[in-house]
Amino acid sequence: MNEVRQDGQIVDQIIKALQGVVDPELGIDLVNLGLIYGIDMTIDGTVTVTMTLTTMGCPITDVLRQMIETAIRKVNGVCRVRVDVVWEPAWTPARMSRLAKITLGYHG
Fold first, then answer.
1. DSSP percent split of the chain into helix, strand, coil, nearest 5
2. Domain harbouring 85, CATH code
3. Where is the MIP18 family-like domain (predicted)?
4. Residue 14 class from Cβ within 10 Å (0-12 exposed, 13-18 middle, 19+ buried)?
5. Which of 19-23, 33-37, 104-108 is predicted least confidently?
6. Which DSSP string corresponds to 51-63?
7. Count of domains for the chain
């Protein structure tokens, strides 16, 4: 097992990169949608993004995965990217940021 690297500056850069990954169907980035559950980076520069999707069987899963990998690879110090899609805890609109809720007209 690789040792997890604790570097807040790199994680901040990764989050910023993920804010540039916009769901093409909703027009909101993955961070504000609340789809990103975790980011881990090992000493060797492997980043694992744990995320979910708004629905199972999402037709753009592979597109989002590629967009995430492309965005994160631009961060200095990142050598490899893994995207783990999980279904627990289930995503709900409550995970969205205020900005995403306003943009999407969600009033729940």
1. 30, 20, 45
2. 3.30.300.130
3. 12-83
4. buried
5. 104-108
6. E--SSTT-TTHHH
7. 1
